[in-house]
């Protein structure tokens, strides 16, 4: 362990942008335009070993966590990940190893589940809700729905006792169904939920020149009423109300039993801790992404030429993480905030959220206001009294779940 830098996170895409689904809201499929030299994007054994060796050397931590995403990482097949696990054990220096694997689940048969269980992978299953919500966007290359396949995989993982959580994308179309989505996910047996707001801008002129384009299917033309964003982009207040409605379900019965990522992060903020999720951090730059060929970019949301840091066959991960370019990228988040953010009562919990979403102007005309600002304010005002109460419980040495005994009975 030779790294003097703070630990960093690296999301790895072994199959690049390749996927066996064609989700209508996916922003990553377009990244094929950056790697036109091959129709298939697959990580080589040489790149895999260089990555694992460098990552192990760069992490001055007692444990190691590897994050596999895509595209669809299962396209690499089980033998690739068997090699990955063997290399992790070779270079980890005896440290415990954790693997997180984000997937649509389509290819996860019994053999996959046996492997994932044997090697203790944590699987994140993309599941947007019940059938009528999930299948609206999550379709295969032929336009066929994927809900049944995802649910079969979920059942199979439970049968093999694979540890899993769910990742749910929230669109303009699904946001009104907050309670239905939450109760559905709860019914699947998941105990950890992530909700990801879909915010996709219309391609800029520069992006279009690179071939980065997004087509709007005919069935969404009626919703295409904003020149700034795609018609599936969740509206700001709409997202705030979605989170508030999910919170209302959770706070009544599920504290300590169901873990919702954003609620955990907010409770930490109300406890006076720095938010643990990068989008809410004061600065960023410690969560990079690596493509199939070893190219490293500043962030998963900024895979564009101007944010390219280098390739692991030419530079070390340590050098790229500690580079002036990456430091400037991280500090820019704090530096380029409008006064409205700095003066906000909830700045301690939000910090202007992700720079990718800061494309509005304030009422005073300053740039850099987050698209979701109105929604986050609504949500944080809603949860504030509960968060204060749970923070008091924790400071008194009591579990946050005790709040459920202090609330009036639910009317829902």
What's the topology here?
Layout: E1 9-12, H1 45-58, E2 64-68, H2 78-91, E3 97-103, H3 110-118, E4 121-126, H4 131-137, H5 147-159, E5 164-170, H6 178-188, E6 192-197, H7 205-209, H8 236-253, E7 259-260, H9 261-270, E8 287-290, E9 295-297, E10 308-311, H10 317-321, H11 324-335, H12 339-342, H13 347-350, E11 360-361, E12 367-369, H14 373-395
Task: Considering the chains and any ligands shown, give keywords for the structure.
412 residues; alpha/beta; single chain; globular
Order of secondary-structure elements: EHEHEHEHHEHEHHEHEEEHHHHEEH
Strand content: 5-15%
Mean pLDDT across the residues is 92
Low-confidence stretches: none
Distance between the termini: 53 Å
Total beta strands: 12
Strand line-up in the sheet with most strands: 7-6-5-4-3-2-1-8-9-10
Q: Which bin fits the share of residues in helices? A: 25-40%
Largest sheet: 10 strands, mixed
Number of helices: 14
Radius of gyration: 21 Å
Inertia-based shape: globular
Structural class label: alpha/beta
Question: If you had to describe this structure to a student in words, what would you say it looks like?
Answer:
The chain is of the alpha/beta class and 412 residues long. 36% of the residues lie in helices and 13% in strands. It contains 14 helices and twelve strands. The strands form two sheets. It has a ten-stranded mixed beta sheet with strand order 7-6-5-4-3-2-1-8-9-10. Helix 1 packs parallel to helix 2 and helix 6 crosses helix 8. It is globular.
């Amino acid at each position: 362990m030779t790294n003097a830098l703070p630990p960093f996170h690296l999301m790895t895409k072994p199959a690049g942008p390749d996927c066996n689904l064609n989700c209508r809201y996916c922003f990553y499929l377009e990244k094929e335009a950056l790697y036109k030299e091959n129709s298939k994007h697959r990580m080589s054994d040489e790149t895999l070993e260089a990555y694992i060796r460098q990552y192990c050397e760069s992490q001055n931590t007692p444990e190691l966590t590897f994050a596999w995403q895509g595209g669809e990482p299962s396209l690499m097949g089980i033998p690739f990940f068997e090699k990955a696990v063997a290399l992790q054990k070779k270079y980890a220096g005896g440290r415990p190893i954790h693997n997180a694997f984000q997937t649509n689940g389509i290819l996860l048969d019994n053999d996959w589940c046996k492997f994932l269980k044997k090697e203790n992978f944590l699987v994140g299953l993309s599941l947007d809700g019940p059938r009528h919500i999930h299948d609206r966007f999550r379709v295969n290359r032929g336009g066929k729905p994927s809900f049944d396949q995802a649910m079969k995989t979920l059942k199979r993982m439970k049968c093999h006792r694979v540890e899993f959580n769910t990742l749910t994308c929230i669109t303009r179309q699904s946001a009104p169904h907050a309670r239905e989505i939450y109760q559905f996910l709860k019914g699947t047996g998941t105990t950890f939920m992530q909700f990801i707001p879909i915010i996709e801008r219309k391609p800029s002129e520069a992006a279009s020149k690179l071939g980065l384009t997004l087509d709007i299917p005919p069935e969404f033309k009626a919703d295409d009423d904003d020149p700034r964003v795609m018609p599936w982009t969740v509206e700001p207040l709409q997202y705030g109300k979605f989170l508030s409605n999910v919170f209302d379900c959770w706070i009544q019965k599920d504290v300590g039993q169901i873990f919702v990522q954003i609620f955990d992060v907010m409770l930490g903020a109300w406890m006076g801790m720095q938010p643990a999720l990068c989008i809410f951090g004061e600065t960023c730059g410690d969560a990079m992404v690596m493509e199939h060929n070893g190219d490293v970019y500043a962030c998963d949301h900024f895979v564009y030429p101007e944010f390219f840091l280098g390739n692991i066959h030419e530079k070390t991960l340590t050098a790229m993480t500690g580079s002036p370019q990456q430091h400037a990228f991280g500090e820019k988040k704090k530096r380029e905030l409008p006064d409205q953010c700095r003066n906000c009562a909830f700045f301690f919990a939000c910090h202007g959220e992700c720079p990718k979403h800061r494309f509005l102007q304030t009422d005073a005309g300053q740039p850099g206001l987050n698209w979701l600002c109105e929604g986050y304010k609504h949500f944080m005002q809603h949860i504030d009294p509960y968060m204060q109460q749970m923070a008091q419980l924790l400071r008194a040495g009591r579990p946050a779940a005790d709040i459920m005994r202090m609330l009036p009975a639910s009317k829902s």
